[in-house]
From TrEMBL:
CDD domains: p23_DYX1C1_like. This is Dynein axonemal assembly factor 4. PROSITE patterns: CS, TPR. It is found in: Cell projection, Neuron projection; Dynein axonemal particle; Nucleus. It comes from Umbra pygmaea. SMART domains: TPR. TPR repeats lie at residues 360-393.
Length: 416
């Protein structure tokens, strides 16, 4: 049963409430704070402070600081005015309803924040993907433009070379024709001087027939020289995953790699811790039996150590989690007891007759932890689940009926 803290102090302004709660020497790491618009709870075992506020506050704009043995809360008023009192005094049923309502508000708020965070994350991923695709499209366009420019440049150079070669060929043909014509002219002049007039016409005609080059021949075609060889450098993006970068989801892959690295680091640490154990201590079932014996003798901390080592060796034994939850119940570590019982129930699937007793024990232990935290609705659900497995158990029937009466207000709370 927790100790209720009543030696708190508070002051106020038109807009804020300043609340000072002494921590009784408890370390800051062991403090659990829960706040809504009309309810504030500070739990630091074995102490508990609850404030059922007389007027609503803005819990999103409120804040708290822990230090020097005191927790200081700055609560933002929704309406700017002086409060007549900090808390209200109701009966236990009203307090229980306020707690349940505060828990529902907190759940709805967490669900809304989680949904908004998921939407924001999805939008960020979508935006990053669009930016990446845009950059890659620009890069492809840039490369294609370089290819087109090089192709146009090579085509222009080839056409210029062809024109030049044709011009050279035409010039050579003209030079040959001119040289032949010069020779013919010289020969005509020499024949006029050296031969008689009677035979002059015949000889000139003979020279013209044999010496003038034929103009019916086609011009010789000139082919361009082959292009010089070259190399294109291709650089690939380094990738851990086999998919292309544009088809991958980089944030998820990096997160997966980080988780893998942490898992490997944890495995290496466990191996260093387990290498000094003897053969029996490396058997998780032997460690479970050792923890059970320590639990029977009342040495709960030593039993938890044995169960912890067994879990490091084998994380798939539901009885180890369930028995460690029983140890946490004895030590009043109720949140840890809830976690271990939930883990045991996750491993006890599918529900069959062979694991019925184990499932019932896990439900009872988790339900007990919920009831110790005054979460009777959740505790009743676990007890009803255990009673459904073992309907003839009279002890379960009595405990279930008692919790139902507490919820209905016809029986005192367990903390009372």
């Amino acid at each position: 049963m927790p100790l209720i803290v009543k030696d708190y102090t508070w002051t106020q302004t038109e807009t804020n409430i300043y609340l000072h709660v002494p921590l009784k020497g408890v370390k800051p790491g062991n403090i659990d704070i829960f706040c809504t618009d009309d309810y504030l709870k500070v739990h630091f075992p074995p102490f508990l402070f609850e404030a059922f506020l007389s007027e609503p506050i803005d819990d999103d704009k409120s804040s708290g600081k822990i230090g020097n043995g005191v927790a200081v809360f700055t609560l933002k008023k929704k309406e700017q005015r002086q409060w007549e009192q900090l808390v209200i005094n109701y009966d236990k049923d009203t307090f229980r309803q306020i707690r349940e309502r505060a828990l529902l508000k907190a759940k709805k708020k967490l669900a809304t924040e989680a949904k908004a965070k998921a939407t924001n994350t999805q939008e960020e991923k979508k935006y990053a993907l669009e930016i990446m695709m845009k950059l890659e499209e620009e890069e492809r366009a840039k490369i294609q433009k370089m290819k087109d420019d090089e192709c146009e440049k090579a085509t222009a150079e080839l056409e210029a070379w062809k024109v030049k070669q044709r011009q050279i060929a035409e010039d050579e043909v003209q030079q040959k024709i001119q040289s032949q014509m010069v020779k013919i002219d010289k020969q005509r002049i020499s024949e006029k001087i050296t031969t008689p007039s009677s035979s002059n016409g015949c000889k000139i005609k003979h020279v013209q027939k044999n010496c003038v080059p034929s103009m019916s021949k086609k011009k010789q075609e000139y082919l361009p020289a082959p292009r010089s060889p070259g190399n294109i450098q291709i650089k690939f993006t380094p990738r851990v995953f086999p998919t292309a970068l544009r088809e991958s989801r980089v944030p998820e892959e990096e997160e997966w790699l980080q988780k893998q690295a942490k898992a490997r680091s944890a495995v290496n640490e466990d191996l260093l811790e387990l290498q000094d154990l003897n053969k029996e201590e490396r058997n998780p079932y032997w460690l479970k039996e050792k923890g059970d014996k320590l639990f029977v003798t009342g040495n709960y901390l030593a039993a938890i150590n044995a169960y912890n080592l067994a879990i490091k060796l084998n994380r798939d034994i539901p009885a180890v989690y369930s028995n460690r939850a029983a140890c946490h119940l004895k030590l009043r570590n109720f949140h840890k007891a809830i976690d271990d019982s939930s883990q045991a129930l996750d491993l006890l699937t599918p529900p069959v007759a062979g694991n019925a007793c184990a499932r019932a024990r896990a439900h009872v232990r988790r339900g007990t932890a919920f009831c110790e935290l005054e979460l009777y609705t959740e505790g009743l659900q676990d007890y009803q689940a255990a009673l459904k497995i073992d309907p003839q158990n009279e002890t379960l029937q009595g405990d279930t009926q008692k919790i139902r009466q507490i919820i209905q207000g016809s029986a005192p709370c367990l903390s009372d």
